């Protein structure tokens, strides 16, 4: 599997040939990060994709948010299963981070974190 690398602002990188392409587990990690960061109704050609963060970040919606994140992760190419339910951490009162542990086609456990 291959996936275009992302820069610090989350945009795809171009112009450096194959050094701008991630492979294997790094590609899976980038796809998960990109898909989890998608907001519902935000992309004109895929309005049904994404997570409804506008409603799910409200108080009392954490279980529904975690379920939505799990659904997105499980639909990513190369993900076989979820080893541990994703954790949502709030740092500095405003910054959300999601940690996850998944089984991929390349390994039994791959752990990473996504900043929103």
Commentary on this structure:
It is built from three helices and five strands; from the N terminus they run ββαααβββ. The radius of gyration is 14 Å and the shape is globular. The chain has a single domain, classed as Nuclear Transport Factor 2, Chain: A (Roll). It has helices at residues 24-36, 53-56, 62-74; strands at 2-4, 21-23, 79-91, 95-104, 110-115. By secondary structure, the protein is of the alpha+beta class.
Q: Keywords for this structure?
A:
116 residues, alpha+beta, Nuclear Transport Factor 2, Chain: A, two-stranded antiparallel ribbon, 30% strand, globular
Helix and strand sequence: EEHHHEEE
CATH class descriptor name: Alpha Beta
The structure class reads alpha+beta
Number of helices: 3
Overall morphology: globular
State the end-to-end CA separation: 24 Å
Mean pLDDT: 85
How much of the sequence lies in strands comes to 25-35%
Write the CATH architecture name.
Roll
The amount of helix comes to 25-40%
